[in-house]
Amino acid sequence: MNLENYYQLDGTKLSFTREQASRFAKAVAGDFNQLHDVHATRFCVPGDLLFAVMIHHYGLRQTMGFSFSGMVSDDDVLVLPEVDAREISIYDQNDKKYLDISCNGDRSRDSRLIESLITRCVEFSGHTFPHVLVPLMEEHNTMINTERPLVIYDHMRISLDTLDIDSVSLNHSNSTFRIYGKRGDVALNYDLLCNGEQVGKGQKKMVLGGLREYDQDKVDQLVNSIEQSRQDYRQNM
């Protein structure tokens, strides 16, 4: 994956260019969320990239939680504290908080395991829309604003029974969708496997904004637009 190609780290100062973050979203995660387009007005760095960089930097713990409290742009410079603690908070140079990390259990810096875990978790994002979100929205007769879709991470967590493994695969187990007026949250739960045996669990929780009554034609237009963007990107790689 060569994760270092997708960010800059100058001492403790972490930053991302729009090109790096957008390339990670599309080429690595298969995520064509409009918020990650280079020219997006509301551009933000993918939560999956922050997740990957934090594990790469601090190491993989058996239990880890990531709570997002702000959208990182290409103008933001985050400061990575040099600590070995169960609770780590990530702020920018203006003391605005973007991320809380909770850690517990043993630690691994095995590059094979870390890359395998990051790759599988990040690739899962590419299947979220439309394969998971669209059926959930249809079931609950609600949808995001298809003209200005807002889908952002709220929380991610992983829990491994053991770190004495060198790779993992991921299997989506179930999803839940809770609606609060014009906002809602979707929790995507998955099992982590090694050689066919379950070795852990994980969850990605996303916030959806601008909810309104489900309209199949508008959903189809959004799905087709994203699929066309995916095909165009692959042809130009």
Topology record:
Blueprint: E1 8-10, E2 13-15, H1 18-28, H2 47-58, E3 60-68, E4 78-79, E5 87-92, E6 97-108, H3 111-139, E7 142-143, E8 150-160, E9 169-180, E10 183-194, E11 197-209, E12 212-213, H4 216-236
Helix pairs in contact: 2-3
Question: Would you kindly provide a written description of the structure presented here, covering whatever features stand out?
Answer:
The chain has 237 residues and is α+β, with helices and mostly antiparallel strands. It has a single domain (3-236), classed as Thiol Ester Dehydrase, Chain A (Roll), CATH 3.10.129. The protein is 31% helix and 37% strand. It is built from four helices and twelve strands; from the N terminus they run E-E-H-H-E-E-E-E-H-E-E-E-E-E-E-H. The chain has helices spanning 18-28, 47-58, 111-139, 216-236, and strands at residues 8-10, 13-15, 60-68, 78-79, 87-92, 97-108, 142-143, 150-160, 169-180, 183-194, 197-209, 212-213. The strands form two sheets. Strands 1-2-4-5-6-3-8-11-10-9 form a ten-stranded antiparallel beta sheet. Strands 7-12 form a two-stranded antiparallel ribbon. The longest helix has 29 residues, at 111-139.
